[in-house]
Amino acid sequence: MGGLGRRGEEQGTPRLLRLRKLGERLYEAELVTEHGERLRLQVRVDNDVIETPFGRYHLSNLDISEHESAQTSSSGESWLVEFDEHEGVLRAKLSMKIVEAMKKPGDRIKKGDKIATIETMKMLNDIHAPCDGEIVEITQPGQGLSPGNILARIKCKT
C-alpha cells in the first residue's frame, strides 16, 4: 500500500474509526481504507499530526467516523476526549480550545447532554456527557487544552 492518502488525492480518504491511548503520545488507531480494509496501527500523535508507518498525516486530512465510539457518548467524540470513570475526569486527547461551556459546576447532567463545544483542527465539535451525574469542574471558554489536560470533572451517579 502506498500510503493512507490525503483529502483530494487519488487514493481516497481513510476513515478514522477509533483512537485509543496506549502511552505518552502513543495510540492505537483503527482506520478503514478506501477499499474497506480495516487497519490497526500503533501511531504517535503530536498535537494534530498522526505519525504512522506510512507517513505523517494531519488529522484534518482524515475522515473521522461518527459511528464507533469508545468511552464517551454515542456521538462519536472518543477520538477527541477520553473519560476515566474512576476519577470522573474527561481529558483532551488532542490540542483544543474551549469555545463554549454549556454547563457549569453544580449542574446536573444526563448521559449524552451537550456540555461543551471545542475547536480543534479549525473544526467545531460538541462534547457530550459520558454519564448521568453532576459537573464538578469544567474548563472555561477561551482556554486551550493540551493532550491529557482536564476538560471536565464529573461526579457520575452509580
H-E string: EEEEEEEEEEEEEEE
Biggest sheet, open or closed, and with what strands and sense? 6 strands, mixed
CATH homologous superfamily descriptor of the largest domain: RNA polymerase II/Efflux pump adaptor protein, barrel-sandwich hybrid domain
Residues in helices, as a percent range: under 10%
- Topology, number of strands: 15
Strand order in space, largest sheet: 5-4-3-2-1-6
What class do helices, strands and sheet pairing give?
mainly beta
Your description of this structure?
There is one protein chain. This protein has 158 residues and is mainly β. It has 2 domains: 15-64, no CATH class; 77-156, RNA polymerase II/Efflux pump adaptor protein, barrel-sandwich hybrid domain (OB fold (Dihydrolipoamide Acetyltransferase, E2P)), CATH 2.40.50. The chain has no helices and 15 strands. It has a 6-stranded mixed β-sheet, with no helix packed on it. A hairpin with a 2-residue loop joins strand 4 and strand 5. It starts with 14 loop residues before the first strand and ends with a strand. The relative contact order is 0.16. Residues 1-11 and 65-75 have low confidence and may be disordered.
